[in-house]
Design goal:
Blueprint lengths: L3 E6 L3 H11 L4 E7 L3 H5 L6 E3 L2 H8 L3 E4 L3 H13 L3 E4 L7 H14 L3 E3 L7 H11 L6 E9 L16 H18 L5 E9 L5 E13 L3 E8 L12 E6 L2 E6 L2 E6 L4 E5 L7 H13 L8 H20 L3 E2 L1
Parallel strand pairs: 1-2, 1-4, 2-3, 4-5, 5-6, 7-10
Antiparallel strand pairs: 7-11, 8-9, 8-15, 9-10, 11-12, 12-13, 13-14
């Protein structure tokens, strides 16, 4: 089968790392990188074409896919322009910065019948895939409650990205955890209550780098979240620590380990070693879906539900009330 041709647009720190992930994928071919900055282009040490102009890159390289790693406020206008030219887009999360804009774009994608992948990649970690299968096998019985704790030290002294976010924790990290909650349970949020806190002891100052979320979900599941980017040390990894309580047992996910605690106080342990950067299986899944003329797991049609949950949590924090989704 002919390899899918793609280019990476946007070469900030994360965009550059995306270029190297894309270059290693055996199912596709990285043909070019694009950034308006010559300095950014020079930092990419790969044998691919380099452009400062997107239109020229598209005209000369004729990519099937653009991996879009621009700031969120540019995601939708750039993605829509590319899709109107017949190019499929894999866009970094979040979809954008505004809920209505995301809803309108999601509706447009559905009307056009075109895929648009959102790079929500935490669900591709082997331990999450393993835990999901165990839950599908019924090891905890009926899921009743899900707890997620995330504690991290995250200095961004440049303040380039996090310094521009109104809700840095929710916008950049919690959105991944909410996606994991949907993935692991197969349920959708019905309500959300969120409280945020500033961090005067670190560079975030009064900007909300910590949050608690409580949500009622479908299937009679309750979700509780406690997260911070303002810890003096990191005590969880980026994926968080999880506890999933059922009516038969409790499943805990910590690092690469899944532990099942039964009512008899016995436990079983499974190890799911990491397989590298989770963007690699995300990209592979995206390419396969494109080749099969279907939608990837985190297509915008699905990922919008995660984005809406996150944005509604931010609204709840601002108004101080529970909000129904």
């Amino acid at each position: 089968m002919k390899k899918t041709r793609y280019l990476v647009l946007g070469l900030g720190n994360y965009g550059r790392s995306w270029a190297y992930v894309a270059a290693k994928n055996p199912e596709g071919e990285l043909v070019a990188v694009v950034d308006r900055s010559e300095e950014a282009l020079a930092l990419v040490d790969l044998p691919v074409a380099k452009y400062t102009d997107l239109d020229t890159a598209v005209a000369e390289q004729k990519p099937d896919v653009v991996i879009l790693v621009l700031p969120p406020h540019l995601h939708i206008p750039v993605a829509r322009g590319l899709m109107e030219k017949g190019i499929t887009v894999l866009c970094e999360k979040p979809i954008c910065s505004d809920l209505k804009e995301a809803a309108d774009f999601t509706a447009w994608c559905a009307e056009q019948g075109r895929p648009c992948g959102i790079a929500e990649n935490y669900r591709y970690r082997p331990v999450m895939r393993g835990a999901k299968q165990l839950l599908l096998d019924g090891v905890v019985g009926k899921i009743r409650r899900v707890n997620c704790r995330f504690t991290h030290y995250h200095p961004d002294y440049s303040m380039f990205y996090h310094g521009s976010l109104k809700h840095p924790l929710l916008n950049d990290v919690t959105v991944h955890h909410l996606d994991l909650a949907r993935y692991l349970t197969g349920a959708e949020p019905l309500t959300v209550t969120c409280t945020e806190h500033g961090a005067p002891h670190c560079w975030y100052q009064q900007r909300p780098a910590s949050a608690e979320i409580a949500s009622e979900m479908t299937e009679d599941i309750f979700f509780a979240y406690n997260g911070t980017l303002a810890s003096p040390v990191s005590t969880t990894d980026w994926y968080g620590d999880w506890e999933i309580m059922g009516d038969k047992a409790v499943l805990r996910i910590c690092g690469t380990t899944v532990t099942l605690y039964t009512a008899e106080n016995e436990k079983q342990v499974w190890e799911f070693p990491d397989g590298g950067d989770t963007r690699a299986p995300l990209l592979s899944g995206f390419i396969r879906a494109l080749q099969e003329n279907t939608f990837c797991e985190s297509d915008i049609r699905d990922n919008y539900k995660t984005f809406r949950w996150m944005q509604t949590a931010a609204q709840s924090a601002e108004c101080g009330e529970e909000i129904k989704l």
